[in-house]
Each structure stands twice: as structure tokens, then as C-alpha cells.
Specification:
It contains five helices and 16 strands. It is of the alpha+beta class. It has one domain. Strands 1-7-14-10-9 form a five-stranded antiparallel β-sheet. Strands 2-3-4-16-8 form a five-stranded antiparallel β-sheet, with no helix packed on it. The structure holds 2-acetamido-2-deoxy-beta-D-glucopyranose (NAG). The site of 2-acetamido-2-deoxy-beta-D-glucopyranose (NAG) has 6 residues, from loops. This is DUF1996 domain-containing protein. Pfam families: DUF1996 (PF09362). Keywords: Signal. It comes from Triangularia verruculosa.
């Protein structure tokens, strides 16, 4: 009996308090409102969340006027990931491409894009108004440029086979996945309330926020790409997949942006998801947390910028 108790306690300690939201991509565009506000000069990004996002860095209030592509009508945050292949990109959030030929890039639209909120029991405050953060390193070219200890960044075959013992953990799998390819990325969970541009990882500071910072829920991106339908014959070695920011088969430069669009009343409920072993739906005045999107999110400025990879590279060269 005693060993059983020990095992139970150990398991309870590793399960983190959480909730999650699923999102549909509604736009691909050569903008990065955090890194290049006001400009059409970024590599391509995929956008999820509030469709009020434009090239300009939005406030929380502006995002809340938009339509959410996620299933929770109380979360008008914007989530982006890098989109189109670019050899000149410096920063942003990349989209994944299937490299079908030398100049033939087919966008891989994630089958599932989920945002998890974890360690909520450790959070001291909700996300401040107008908070935004970047996770990952858009210029990373090797495993040593990646900090898995803070960001958790790793790529693997969701349903096996597991090959990370034979490769760097932020490379894409070197074996054909039996199902989806999955990648995860954790966001900073400490913020200075007097200057919200100042944020950090508790994991980089012995599990506590640095002095003067407060702990917020930890956002984690989880992206699943159904590459089996695109590449039915599979691969051996580097897969013919390329992030907008990196080289074929490499996943080092994967990164993400988050701009807070949560309504205050729903964030109060988000902070209640503190159970270590029970998932909680986050409801709010605008609906149930799994109500789904009905407003038809779309690009608000369809004539501005580009969703074409080659054009986006030209636009980066011109600026
Ligand atoms: C990001 O990657 C670059 C390589 O392009 C590296 O020099 C830098 O140290 C990395 N940044 C971090 C925080 O690891």
C-alpha cells in the first residue's frame, strides 16, 4: 500500500492545472505586428484568434472588437505562428511548408492548433491589458540556440515512432510519422506590471518569477500537422518540410506571438482552473468556453500585404 501512495503523489505533482482552446487559422499575411508594427515586410505568418489584427500592434480593446476564430468567444487574443519559407527572415512567426519541388511550396495548414493554459495554480495575476509576448528564437539554427528548459520546444511524431533519442529534439522527426507531426512551445509566465514589455520565464529563475515580476498563467502552443496526407510515401532522414524562418527539416526557429485579447470576466474564470488534475472550461459573459465560433473571422484588410510566399520575399527585399 505504501508504494502505491508514493506513486499517486508523484503523478499528482507532475500534472499541471490547465485549460485549452482550439483555433482555426483565418489569415496568412506578411505582417508581424510585434516585430514590424505598421509594415508589410515580415515573412509569412499564420494568424489565429481575433480577426481585428492588422499590421499595427493592437490593444486588447481593439482585438476585443473583432471576431474570434477560436472556440471560446471570451478570448479575443491573437495567436500567430510563422508561415512562409523565407531565407531572409529575421523575426516573426513561421508557417510550415511542404517542399514539393525546388520552387514549389505548399502551405501545411495545421490540422489542430491548440492553446493550453497551464500552472494556473501558480498564477498571481491575469494577463495585463495590452500584454504581448514572443516565445522561441526566430533566428535559431541549431539546438544550442534553443532553450528547451524554458520554451519546451520540441518536435515529434504524435503517435510514434519516437526517434528523439537519435536526433536533436528541435529537429523534425527523421522517420515517417504514423500520424501527425506535433510541436509545442511555452510562453513566458512572469511579467513586470509596471512595464509589461518586461517578461521572463520562471523556469529560468529556479521556478520563481524574478523580483518585481508577477506570475501569469503559462500559455503553451500545441500544433499538429497532418503531413501523412500530404506526403503519403513518408520520408527517411530530413522530411521535405520547411518553416518560413528555417531550413528544410529543421524546427529550431519555430516561434510564436501572443497578444492578449481576453475579456476580464473570463480571465477571472481562467484563474479558477487551478486543479492539478481536472480540466476546466473557461466561460464568460460572451458564451461558454467551447461554444465555437459563429461570426466568420476574416482578413479585415484583404487588399493589403500579401498571402503569396514569393511576393512576400520580394516585399522584404524592397524594404
Ligand atoms: C538565437 O539564435 C541565435 C543564432 O541565430 C543565437 O546567436 C542566439 O544566442 C539565440 N538566442 C538565444 C536567446 O538563445
Amino acid at each position: 500500500m505504501i508504494p502505491l501512495v508514493v506513486v499517486t503523489c508523484t503523478l499528482a505533482a507532475v500534472v499541471t492545472a490547465y485549460t485549452d482552446i482550439r483555433h482555426k487559422r483565418f489569415m496568412i499575411k506578411n505582417i508581424d505586428p510585434i516585430v514590424y508594427p505598421g509594415q508589410y515586410r515580415s515573412h509569412m505568418h499564420s494568424f489565429f484568434g481575433s480577426d481585428a489584427v492588422t499590421k499595427d500592434l493592437s490593444t486588447t480593446a481593439e482585438l476585443q472588437k473583432g471576431c474570434a476564430s477560436g472556440e471560446n468567444p471570451n478570448d479575443l487574443s491573437v495567436y500567430c505562428k510563422p508561415s512562409i519559407p523565407s531565407w531572409k527572415s529575421t523575426k516573426g512567426i513561421p508557417t510550415l511548408y511542404y517542399v514539393r519541388g525546388p520552387n514549389d511550396f505548399v502551405e501545411v495548414n495545421p490540422g489542430m492548433f491548440s492553446t493550453y493554459y497551464e500552472n494556473i495554480d501558480k498564477a498571481e495575476i491575469p494577463y495585463p491589458q495590452d500584454f504581448f509576448a514572443i516565445a522561441g528564437n526566430a533566428t535559431a539554427r541549431s539546438q544550442s540556440d534553443v532553450n528547451e528548459g524554458t520554451t519546451g520546444l520540441t518536435w515529434w511524431c504524435e503517435n510514434g515512432p519516437e526517434d528523439r533519442q537519435n536526433r536533436n529534439r528541435a529537429l523534425m522527426p527523421r522517420v515517417t510519422c504514423s500520424g501527425n507531426i506535433q510541436v509545442i512551445l511555452r510562453f513566458p509566465d512572469c511579467v513586470k506590471t509596471s512595464n509589461i514589455k518586461n517578461y521572463a520565464y520562471a523556469a529560468a529563475n529556479g521556478g520563481r518569477c524574478p523580483a518585481g515580476m508577477k506570475r501569469v498563467p503559462q500559455l503553451r502552443f500545441s500544433v499538429r500537422y497532418n503531413v501523412r496526407s500530404l506526403i503519403p510515401k513518408g520520408w527517411s532522414g530530413a522530411p521535405p518540410l520547411k518553416l518560413a524562418c528555417g531550413e528544410v527539416g529543421e524546427g529550431y526557429c519555430f516561434h510564436g506571438d501572443f497578444i492578449n485579447g481576453w475579456f476580464d470576466d473570463a480571465q477571472k474564470n481562467l484563474l479558477k482552473a487551478t486543479s492539478r488534475n481536472q480540466w476546466l472550461r473557461v466561460d464568460g459573459a460572451r458564451g461558454e468556453g467551447k461554444a465555437g465560433t459563429t461570426c466568420g473571422p476574416k482578413d479585415r484588410e484583404p487588399t493589403k500585404g500579401t498571402s503569396d510566399y514569393i511576393t512576400s520575399v520580394d516585399m522584404m527585399t524592397m524594404s
